[in-house]
Amino acid sequence: MLSAYNEQQQLFLPYQYSREALQQSRQQMKFYCPQCLQPVQLKIGKYNIPHFAHIANKSCVQLFSEGESKLHYQGKIQLFEWLRKLGHTVKLEPYLPKLSQRPDLLLIKEQQQIAIEFQCSAISHEKWLLRTSGYEKNSIQPLWLFQTPQRQSTQGIQKIFISPIMQKMITTTAQGLSYLVSYDAKTSRFIYWTNLLHVHGHTFIGKVQELAIHKQHFPFYQPTSITKEEFRLYWQLYKKHCKQFVYQRLIHSKKGARDSFLRCSYELRLSLTAMPDYVGVPVKDAEAIPLFPIEWQTILHYFCRGLQLLPHEMDERDIRLFLRQQNVEITDRAVQAIKNYGIVIAKSYQKNDCFPDICEQVYAHLFAIATIY
Q1: Count of alpha carbons within 13 angstroms of residue 303, beta-carbon side
Q2: What is the spatial distance between Cα 338 and Cα 228, in angstroms, rounded to a whole number?
Q3: Comparing 162-166, 254-258, 311-315, which segment has the lowest mean pLDDT?
Q4: Where are the domains of the chain?
Q5: Fewer CB within 10 Å, N side or C side of the chain?
Q6: Is 109 within 8 Å of 83 (Cβ atoms)?
Q7: Global pTM?
C-alpha cells in the first residue's frame, strides 16, 4: 500500500519523501493500516517504490493487493498526482467499508464518485465483474485503466490485438465512434486506440495516438472520426486480413465439400484468390456473428440465391432463418448486422450494379453516417 497513518493519525505518503528521510521516519515513527489500524512496515528498497506492508499473518492482508509490481505503484502515483494538479479532489487507495473494496484512486467530482482502477496484471472476468458491480450498486462509477500492452507502442493506423477483458472497456461516443484509452506508466502517456473497427475475434483495426500525461484533461478527450483518405488504409488492412483468412481456410480446412464457405464460393463461382469486394465487408454489429465476415457474407449470397432475393431484400424472417441454419445465436445485433450489410451493398447496387467503390459506402456506414445517410 502507498499510504498509512502515523502516530498523529496523519496520512503518510512515502513517495513524497527522499529515501534518506524515509530511513529516519522508519526509525522514529510508527505506522498503521488505514483500514484495520494494525501496525504496518515501511519498506524502502533500492529498486521498488517505497510502500507499506502488513506484518505477516495479520487478518487485513487479504483486502490489500500486497506484492504489487513497481509499475503498478508507479502508475497509481502518477495518476494521483496528475488529477491533483488538475484541481480534482482525489484519494489514494481509500478503503470503502460498504463495499469492502479499495480502489486505486477515488475521484470526487461534485455529487459524483469515480473509482479508478489501474490494472497492470491479468484479471479474470469474474473478478472484474464482481468489483465493477460492487461500485455500480453503490452509485460509484468504475473507471478501469489498463497498462498499455508492451507490443502496442507505435502510433498510426494499424492492426491491434485487444484482449477480451480490455474489450469491455471500449467506449462509444455519441457519434458512434468506438475507442479505448489505456495508460503507459513507463512513459507517462495515455494511449488512445480510436475509430476501432472489429475484424475478427480479438483483432481490430484502429488509429493509435499518444498523449503525455501533462497534456491530458479529465474527463478524457473524445476522438474525432478518421478521414475518407485514412479509411483507405483501414480498407487495405481489412482486405489483407480477408485474404489471409481465405488462404488459411483453403490450406487447412479438413471438411472438403462439407465446408460451407468453400462450397458456397464454388457454387457462386467466386475465385478464392481474388474474392470480390462486396464480400468481406466490415459492418456495424458484426461482432454479434462469430463467423469471419467474408465467410458469413459469402454464405449469405448463396442463401439469397436460393430465395431469388438480394441481401437488402430479405425480411427479418429470412434473416432469422439464415442465422439458424448457420447455428448463430439469433440476437437483435446479429439481425441488425445482416441488415447493415444489405444497406451497404444496396447503395452500390444502385450505382449500375457493378460495385464501383464499395469502400466509400463502407466508410459512410461506419464513420460518416450522419453526413451521408
Answers
A1: 22
A2: 24
A3: 254-258
A4: 1-67, 156-224, 230-372
A5: C
A6: no
A7: 0.81
Hunting for cell 464499395 — which residue is that?
358
Instruction: Tell me the backbone φ, ψ of residue 270, rounded to 5 degrees.
Output: -95, 135
140: Cα separation from own chain's centroid: 21
Confidence band, pLDDT 50/70/90 cuts, at residue 371 = very low
Per-residue CA distances from 124 to 131, 163, 179 (Å):
11, 11, 22
Cα separation of 79 and 76, whole Å? 5
The alpha-helical segments, DSSP class H, found in the chain are: 19-28, 70-85, 125-137, 164-167, 228-252, 260-267, 293-307, 316-325, 332-349, 358-367, 369-372
| Beta-bridge partner residues of 118 | 145
Which pLDDT tens digit goes with each residue over 131-153?
999 999 999 999 999 999 877 66
Which of 160, 120, 119, 123 shows the shortest CA–CA distance to 143?
A: 119
Q: Distance (Å, rounded) from C-alpha 322 to C-alpha 325?
A: 5
Whole-number Å distance between alpha carbons of 75 and 133: 24
* C-beta of residue 73 within 8 angstroms of C-beta of residue 2: yes
Can you read off the three cell numbers belonging to residue 199? Answer: 475484424
Q: 37 in the Ramachandran plot: left (φ > 0), alpha (ψ -120 to 50) or beta?
A: left
From the centroid of its chain, how far is CA 175?
18
Beta bridge partners of residue 211, listed in sequence order: 190
**Cis peptide leading into 293, omega within 30 of 0?**
no
State how beta strands 156-161 and 140-146 pair: unpaired
Q: State phi, psi for 172 to the nearest 5 degrees.
A: -120, 130
Q: Which amino acid is at 196?
A: L
H/E segment holding residue 31: strand 31-32
Cell of 150: 508492451
Q: What is the pLDDT of residues 106-130, one digit of tens each?
A: 999 888 999 999 999 889 999 999 9
Cross-sheet strand order for the sheet of 89-92? 89-92, 105-109, 112-119, 140-146
